Structure formats: C-alpha cells, structure tokens
Amino acid sequence: MYCASSLFSKCSLLKLSRIFTTASLVSAVALISGCGGGGASSGSQQNSAAFTLGTLIATSTGNDLITSYRIAMNSVTLTNKAGKSVPLFTYPASGGLNAEFIHMNGDPEPFVTGLSIPQDTYVSATADIASAYGVCLGTVSGGILVAELGGGPVSASSVTVNLPQPLVIGGNNIGLLLDMQTAQSSNLVACEENSIGGVKLTPTFNLTTMPIASTPTNTSNGRFSGLRGLITSLDSTGSGFTVTAGDGPTWPVNTNGSTVFQGITSFAQLVTGIPVEMDANLQPDGSLVATRVAAYDIPASDLNLLTGPLIYANAQYNVLGQIETAEQGPLQASFMDNDLTYQNANFQVSGQLANLSSLPFTADFSATTMTNGQNVWVSSSTQQIVYPTYIAASTITLVPQTINGSVSSVTTSGNFTVYTVTLASYDLFPLLANNGSNPLTNPGVVEVYVDSNTQLLNSGGGALAAGKLARFNGLVFDDNGALRMDCAQISDGVAE
Description:
Number of domains: 3
Number of strands: 35
Helix content: under 10%
Shape: globular
Radius of gyration: 22 Å
C-alpha cells in the first residue's frame, strides 16, 4: 500500500483531531490523504454460458453526520445455498481497492468492472476490508473540530454485508449494487471532542442486484452523473479513453456521435493528464458510454485535483480549505499540508445540470458568493511547493452534492416546485456558518428547486409533502445569503 503523507496519516492511522479557530484559518491544514492498491482479479476469468458478466457499483445511504468515509477493500465473496464460496474480486493482501463513500450518497459510481460470476443463487456475502477511516466535523469552544474516526485494519467481525434478498445471478450481464449504510457503519452519535476517541468503524453494506437498462434513464438502472477524474490513457480508436478517479476506481469510457462535449468541441482535443467530468451510461460489458464530457484546464496536464466540501474561505487572504473526498496529481503526497489561494482562480459551475438559466434566481458561483459547505472541485498547476508559499488554485468548479433534510413547506415558482428543507445542526452549512467570510441569512435552511428534469427516486416517485424526510442531490448556491439548490435527484431520506 502506498500512502500520501499529511497531518492525519491514513496509513499510520492515528486517532487525531484538530480544532480550526477563526484565528488559525490562514494556517489551517486540510486533511484526508489516500492510499492506493494494485489491480483486482475476478472470481473467475472464464466467460461461458455458465457465467454472467457483472459490474459492482458502489453507493451509500446516509445523513450528513459523517463528512468522509474511506475504505480499502481486498475482496467481496458470495456464498450459494450449498455453502460454496465464490470471490467476486480479490486484491493483493497488501493493497485494496480504495473508495470514498460519502460523496456517493444516493449517487452511485462503478466500482469494479468485468466480473465473471458463476450463475447461481447466492444467499450470503462477506467483504474483506484492509482499512477504514472517516472524518466528522463538530463545534468546540472558539472553532470547528475536524476529527478522524477509527482507522487501521478492520476485523472480519466488524464488517457486514447484508443481502435483503438472495442474489439470483443469470443472463448475459448484471449489476450488483454495494450500498454502504453509513448510520450502521460507525457508532458515532455526535462529533464532539470528548466522545470521538471511542468511535469505531463497522462498515455495513446492503448488496442487491441492479438492472442495466439498454438505455439507462437514472442511477437505478445504469446511468451515472458527475464522474470526475484524470484521463490516464487514450484509445487508438479515436473515441475511447480511460479515467482514473481521485479515490481509486478506473473507468473505461467510449464516446459516440451523441456525446456532448463541454469546454472542448470534440474528442480530438482530449489528451492524457487533463481532468474531465462525465455523465455516462453503463454498458453490458462494464464499459461506459459518455453522454457528456466536460474537459477543463485545456491544454494543461499533470494537474493536481481536490474534490470536497469547503470548510473555510477567507476573503481577506484569498485562502480556502477543504475536506478532501478525492485527490490526485503530482502533489498528492504533500497537498494536505497547505492551504490554497484563489486570488487568480477561474470560477465555474459544473455543466451537469442544463437548466441554470431558467432558475428563478441567479445561479452565481464566484469568489464573492463561495460559501462554506459547498462541494467544489479544485485544480492547481503547481508542480512544486516552496514553503511557506500557498498552492495556487487554477480552477474552482462548483459540483453537485447531497443533503439530507426535512421538508417544512412546499411552494411553486414558475415551472419549479420549491421545497424548503430544514437541515440537521451537524450539517456543514449551519455548522460552518460562522467560520467564513460570507454570512448566510438562515444556514439551517435550503430552498430546493425541482423541475421536470429532476429524477424522482424517492418511494412513490412523486411530490413530497411537508414533514417528509428526503435526500436531495444538486448544485447549492449562495443567493445573497440564502441557500438554494438546483436539484438533480431526490431519494428517500435517512433518520437524523
């Protein structure tokens, strides 16, 4: 296992915490560095009529109590009715396939592709996890507590893989959805200085089959949105490429005549080393066909990328800090010891949602409207750090995020249904409201704008009534002190 060094070493797995005070914002250190492993092997390399080609898809279901939850997974094994065990995939014992699950809350991503699974009915499953660690945010006197949770090797008895129904594997291809239940994956009750020392991580998953539609329409049947990473190779065909995500997975991607390009005009402008954001449809062979490819920072390559929520943005010094849910690039090993300056950064909004111009408010994201709690994707062309120089952000992109909250009222505005959503006190927006430069009028409330393009994946698939708990995924803007979300998807909520 290789490790990126930071104040909080994820490989020494020390239980540490740090308090961010208003006086120490400029020197505050962001955290979460990654560990990576080698390639996986599937349970069987053959593919015949007795085998089904499978794709393991990762997601999570949770509230907003935990900010980051990473695992390094060595294997997943299925067991049939006769007690015979079949490994879905196996990584070297010294490695593990890394994934960060909080950023996938209700928003799945491909995890392992090209699995060859013996056709059978499986009644149980297990997972071997090399390590797990999380991060939570809380308040302490004079500042914000950022604490690492658990860490270190995970015993088999601490990992649970539930099968709500037996897995019936048959046909030519199938999707398997590995859904982390974050509330059951730790004993965290509150992120408080006097209680985090006793927190244990107990990764808990539901594993179910997921249909792969010939033309996927949403995240429940093979459509993926907002996949982000670096292009690591280009196919000789002139239409395909490979993307490696910041938290570990690698995706084979193809384009076709229907692919929409943003930031560039065609596939020909893509080169290795540049970051891309994609929407894509899963194919039966486990590859992806991109419906949208947004390429930023052209023609720069060898960029450093950081994704995650802002924990502070100091306008006086043009300095920001994040909790990273993904990071990659030449400076990955040393990024965590530095703040980022954004004085000369280009601000932009993800092109994932195409209705920004029709919103009944101005969807602006800039240095003056950036606020703590927003999810951003930051790039930097800095190749070497000369202390005490800050790392200069090249581009800061607002990207979608998931919030969990209760609907307090329902109104309409033009073609939009507007849900007033009340957040828990531990959500990042109310928690960090007094930790930055841009004050919010009511940081515990988000106005969520829903139109005909919003995917309604909540139970019943219809409108929500006041009092309903739900998860909302979309772009969150600071509109003159009011938080407003352009909503892409609604899922069932999780108890707070």
